[in-house]
Amino acid sequence: MTPHLPAHLPALLFDLDGTLVDSVPDLLTAVNSVLAADDRAPLDRTAITAMIGNGARKLMERAYLYTGGLPAPRHDGETVIETLYDRFMEVYGDHPTAETTLYPGVVETLTTLHAAGHPMAVVTNKPEQPALVLLKKLDLLKFFSVVIGGGSTPVLKPDPLPLTTALERLNATGRPAVMIGDSINDSAAARAAGLPCVCVTFGYCHGPLESLGADALIDHFSHLPQAVAQVLSPAAALAGAD
Ligand SMILES: O=C(O)COP(=O)(O)O
Ligand SMILES: [Mg+2]
After folding, report:
1. Which of 33, 46, 150, 201 lies 20 to 30 angstroms, CA to CA, from 234?
2. How far is the CA of 204 from the centre of ligand 1 (A)?
């Protein structure tokens, strides 16, 4: 019997914050500028890192709860969270890359995978507008034919919808596919979508790495092609069934 080989190269779905880029410095600047306008104490890197992962609304909610609580409800009907989100986007929306950096090996690895012909998408909980600005400014947009950000679908990761929407837009529904991320939201969304997940160890994981439940962990981006092959191999599938 011939060994089972995928009919197509696997589609690759990439998380953004904590996976491709270290975006904490610009997120910190933006959140602290909103907090400062409200006479709140600034967050430090450790505090904000623990708040990243569930999108900008959750980030602002967590930042305010951490620094004294949510502001009083407004009288014009707009929810407090929506107001905080708008203020954050005023600062961050067009300027998400002053100090944001790529993790080592990202450009080289994406170049190789793109040249090999993998359909590739970004699936991030960061709002779509700053995600697109960031990818363009850091010259990553050319690798991805689809970008799903916060607001592109009605729900965020860990719901599987952003991932399944990305696969549809890549015309890759039914192909083998792998999610690559750094958080429980990525691994949970992947599991719910029926996909394996490779997690990086250098991102914004909020607990022990084992808690991610990843099918493979990589500590350098250059190890990704090997990890993708590993999580899609029949041996890995059998091991997962134990
Ligand atoms: O914006 C966030 O909270 C996290 O974004 P990510 O999904 O790219 O990690
Ligand atoms: Mg992330």
Report:
1. 201
2. 9
